[in-house]
Amino acid sequence: MAGKPKLHYVRGRGKMESIRWLLAAAGVEFEEQFIETNEDLEKLRKNGQLLFQQVPMVEIDGMKMVQTRAILNYIAAKHNLYGKDLKERALIDMYVEGTTDLMGMIMSLPFQPPENKEKQTSLIFERATTRYFPVYEKVLKDHGQDFLVGGKFSWADVHLLEAILMVEEMKPDVLSAFPLLQAFKTRVSNIPTIKKFLQPGSQRKPPFDEKYIVQIRKIFNF
Ligand code: IBG
């Protein structure tokens, strides 16, 4: 039997967090090897472990996988969280890319120059409440099912819950105009694997703080 996947990344959310979420949702235990310094990163690069010299990198099923989206696709397909046919996959891909775009705006916020932060924060709330959340609210309303695609829990649900919680950390009442998303949040949060991941002490990471941003800049040299 294959061992546990091993995740190589910094000790923070960044691009690895959605991979942690998806593994946790699938009930897969994983190990983490944290990159704490630029030397740690260089060591991985020199050993030829990183195809494009970048992380996230995940050792899984005998592969050293890079590229976040490829890693997520693999895990979703392997654990039956990627729809039952091509059309369901297409929907899952569209929904996931939407939430990825929203999360990308949030992820880049701590790295913005201070004078941009207020504007970027307003843009995040605007996009969340006028572009992304209305789409998912309407999907749930139109088909009347519990989950976004095919009446079955999928990667799209995991990704949306992660995005909702990220926006709520910044603006707790952001779902006030989205009753079906509120119910969705409760429902998905109570799936046992996810419930466990949301509890303190899990491998879920907190948002980056200012001190950690300094360390990240040193690790990646930017
Ligand atoms: N397309 C790749 C993917 O999606 O996996 C991009 C990966 C990537 O940009 N990795 C960064 C890296 O290794 C670290 S994550 N950079 C070094 C290099 O030489 O390119 C950076 C990041 C953080 C937090 I930290 C939020 C967003 C990005």
From TrEMBL:
Keyword terms: Transferase
Domain of life: Eukaryota
A UniProt-annotated Pfam family: GST_C_3
EC number: 2.5.1.18
GO molecular function, one term: glutathione transferase activity
InterPro entries: Glutathione-S-Trfase_C-like, Glutathione-S-Trfase_C_sf, Glutathione_S-Trfase, Glutathione_S-Trfase_N, GST_alpha, GST_C, GST_superfamily, Thioredoxin-like_sf
Domain GST N-terminal: 3-83
Domain GST C-terminal: 85-208
GO biological process: glutathione metabolic process; xenobiotic metabolic process
Keyword Transferase belongs to the record: yes
Sequence similarity: Belongs to the GST superfamily. Alpha family.
PANTHER family in UniProt: GLUTATHIONE S-TRANSFERASE, GLUTATHIONE S-TRANSFERASE A1
Protein name stated in the entry: glutathione transferase
UniProt source species: Podarcis muralis (Wall lizard)
